[in-house]
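Recap for those who missed Tuesday's class. We walked through two folding examples back to back. For each one, the amino acid string is listed first and its predicted structure tokens come directly after. Nothing is annotated here on purpose, so try labeling regions yourself before you check the end of the notes.
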Amino acid sequence: MALNLSLSQFVVIFLSLLAFVAGVVLVMEANSLASALNIPSMPFPGEGQKLLVDPTNSQQGTLFLLNFYYPQEAEKQDLSLVVRKGTETQTVALFDDGLHQDKKSKDSWYGGFFDSTNATPGTYEVVSGNNEVLGHFEVVKSGCQLIQGSGREDTIKFVILSDKYTDLSEFKNDALHLITGKDAILTVEPYKSNLDKFSFFVVNANNDFNCQVGCHGISTLVCCDDKAVMDAASQCSFDQLFVLLKDTTLCGSASTYAKICAKNDYAPMVIMHELGHSVGDLADEYLYDTAFGGYDVGKITSANCDAQGCDKWKDITSGCFKGCSYDYLYRSEETNSIMLQYVPEYNLVSQRELSNKISNYSMQIDERQRTAPPQKSYFVNAEYDNGSVLINSVTLKPVDAPLQVGGSEFSTEVLDTKGKRLQAQTLKVPLIVFPLPNASASAFKEESFNFSFLIPYQSKADYLAIKRNDKVVASSSLSVFSATCGDNRCSGAENHLSCPQDCPINEGFCQTGACDPDCPSQKTCVTDQKNKFNWGIILMVGALVIGIGGFFILGNRKK
């Protein structure tokens, strides 16, 4: 049966169909505006772009920080880079909000992390959208090897690093010579009586820490790239570390860790002296050279130096001999002390202090074992400059943080979003450098330097504060590392792109997407979306009503 339409009916139906289609189009546009695209945009090639990767070499499980400077004008606060090795690729989202280790919000520096937990070892490229290689970094297998002790978790862990060694066997033999050989660390008290409390590891890598002998004009002094040392050491969980240089020179120094030349006859006693500083917080007992103008390294509070009368050790010895770092302080032994001269012996006062430190380590280890924290730590890169401290970056490494024993004017606190302290400890900053006993050398203060340290991870952390004498001198957001997505609170570093279940689209972050009112160019997009949806529905319903109604009305008129 043929449908016999009048011209009027045909026109009404045609116009109604057009209106219905227009309504459908408006509804579809409204829906496309409502759904943000959760794929960050790739950067376009341009002048001034710069990529920084930290660390450049680390073990599986490390979060590698990608900092990308993208000076091209862009209102969005996210972009992405591709990390690849052969056919293995991962898109990494980067953010410019001041919360992703990206410096300040909206400063064209973007920050994000490559999680290497499931990455295969090798060299990875970081590439942009047009396949331009921006930089490289290396994922390695953990290179820690036990050479002495049980390696149990309840022992104090020493990690030994090599500089300029190319033969692993030679390095291990030299390390063992310093640990167990003639006049070595474990042959003297109080280490000798506590053998079961120590484990010694070496890192199986050919390192060049740019160590220099004779720096600062002191012939026996050693200076190394401290950040590179800490990066390499953190392939293992450790509590103390020292570096062996493949060098025959008589050399050594200590700050927060010890470093010595391993290829000379005095090396076992040199490492004993330097570990007296880095492990026991012991002071030098020889007099600092007046050629430095009586260089003042600050007040000496170490257990092995005292004022006239020597009350600190009157319960174990009556010795009180003038001269202990400064000529107005006193020491407990006239001779026969490794902190004074090259003899393989800590005096009784130093032995007691080292024993106390070992006991404190053991108590902290028991606490660590009892609370069983995750084997993960914040790796913090900072710099000190004439009293001020700046945190440059923070990332995560899959190791326990070293235990902190002994006093310091610096400390760290990790706090949650409500300011509740989750974790706190002392922080040893390498302000003072101790050379070897030498007629022309004294300890001295560093005025400007970079340093790195590890502190325990906290899953609910919001920020890190560094304090000096209880005054905050530096801070950094830690919220990007926290496991808070899914708690129904849009907090910390979360945004609609990284945690859509907690964060609405209008959370204060301008993301790549079809409708984000936080972007200046899209402030009215939600209103536009609602208007388009409403008008679309009106057109669709109106088209149906007018089309159907008009068809029958005109049909009745025709009859």
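Example two. Treat it independently of the first, because the proteins are unrelated.
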Amino acid sequence: MLNTFLLFSLLQLNTGAVNGLSEVTVETDSKILPVMQVTSSRETVNYSASSSLAVISAAELALELPTHPNEIFDRIPGVWISRGSGQEHLTAIRSPVLTGAGACGAFMVLEDQVPTRPAGFCNVNQLFEVNVAQAGRIDVLRGPGTVIYGSNALHGAISVFTPGPQASAADAVSSAFSLQLGGDNYYRGQIAMSSDTLAVQAGYTDAKSFRDDERYQQGLFNFQALHSVGKARGRTSFAYASLDQDTAGFILGKDAYKDSTLRRQNLNPDAFRKAWASRLSSRWNWQADNGDSLELIPYLRSSRMDFLQHFLPGTPLETNGQDSFGLLTSWSNERSLSAGIDLEWTQGFLQEFQENVLNGGSAFLNETRPQGYHYDYDVAATMAAVWFQWQHDFSSELELTTGLRAEYLAYDYDNKMLDGNTRDDGSECGFGGCLYTRPADRTDSFSNISPELKLSYQLPSEQLLYLRAARGYRAPQATELYRLQRGQLVVDLKPVTLDSLEFGYKGSAENISYELIAYFMRKENFIFRDANGFNVGDGKSRHRGIEAQFHWQMSAQLALNSNLSWAENSYDFNRDLGFSGVISRGNEIDTAPPWLGAIRLNWQAHENQQYEAEWVYQGGYFLDAGNAFTYPGHALFNLRAALTFADGSHQLSLRMNNVFDRRYAERADFAFGNYRYFPGRGRWLSLEWQYRR
């Protein structure tokens, strides 16, 4: 039996339909921990009590009204979505905020069980491609992914599920329209419509900022349809996202985020990002009379992006895109044995072009960063994987789950320019050659085996102990292999691996539920740029931490929820990085707050009135590899209210973020001799009107 104990927060899962085909049922009268039953084979593999899976519900999303992913994921311990400019962000799940060409490969983002990006072609801002605010629910797995995840679920996975059609009368159509107005000229409109077989969600945002020349327009559209052929049931999903953003970069100077003038500055007024992404998938389920089930998910994806690299001298324009298709399969035998095969093919490209001659820097910069094309290449990628999971009950209390995934990823790289580090016309740069290096055509392949083992023991009084050991991995990303610098013509990179051991204790009483988890992880072969500017892959790090969640239903109207995490992320090797600093074994990794936490008090004053007070804390952290510079951390206080009128068709939602107008930094670091900050937004008020019928 799969015992499942999910997140202790405002969310309380009720019996009902979730995501169309996936029925989620919590047995509240059980004498053991709640049991989650799901009809989707891949979800069944995931939903085990013996893991740190957390869920953000549609109710939480509706109350939070997130304008950015940063605002909703602080409900989960050990997770930080670091807010950048507009919809830009960096992700941390049991990790530091990771930067670099392929660092985004440490986290997998999925929509309706399908990864939003091909293996090897990640995007650090990939959450702007999914409709977080209108999701049916969001699952977050902290730590290495289970066997159904492949390369990129190294530190964790974020799965966004669209709401899907809702059960209703055959001819009935439910709909909701909303308009949200906020400070700094923030406007967002949303619409959702659903019948028993079709559903649509769409939103459009036009937002300016407290910073100069910073704004974005974002459009999101989702469609789902249920259908069946004979004994097969299907659910088809289509998603489209677009972003047109005028970007603001770092502000500079120690404590610049506190200065009323500096925090509004945009030192990169010409910076922009324009992108779109589309995805189509169809999930089909067959249930045999003997209890066996088969699931097939074919999918298509496409994306394009242009953005000005304002953080580089010469501000070159990057254009990239990917087209991919694949098939996810799974078979299960009454949940004791599950297995599957995953296949994927991708065609990607990248171009980088510098329009103007650089003449404002040093002679070295001016000479080594030439006008013209720097890169122009295509990469075809093929991925094939096979996985299985087996479960055995030794007794009614003791359960073993074990699994294995084997994956193969191959790249075929085609350089469409001259090989080497010349200018695009073949002329040589001074100072030993141009910065940008283009390797010759080549092929690369990577193989990985990822085991997982879980033991869970059911204690009396609805308590559970578990142990989970797992290995996560990610293949080198295409940009790490083929976007080289400083004359490096060949890279010898291995897959990054993360070995994790996790201990968990979960329990619930009459009005209280709680979770306590400790983990230890060791990462090898992580990829970084050394003092020569070469991509190398011999980094090592250690990660350990404690995560806690607590929910107390103090009365029928009042509930207290809290989450807290402590982590230590440290280097496990020595290296002089030149201008980037010196890495010493035992030093803490930069941009890795040891403490993250939040407390929320929820008051259901009346069935039509809900209020929430939230305190969010982020501890101080180091800004550099040498641990010489620090950011002190901050705490923010937020208020929310949702008022539904008597007829139930109209609702007003108010929210005030940063009530005490705290001056803080969304993210801080120290580089190139400067403190650098993304300043946080001051006190911010918004009002949303919603009409439902």
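Answers for example two:
Residues 480 and 568 are 27 Å apart (CA to CA).
The longest strand covers residues 372-393.
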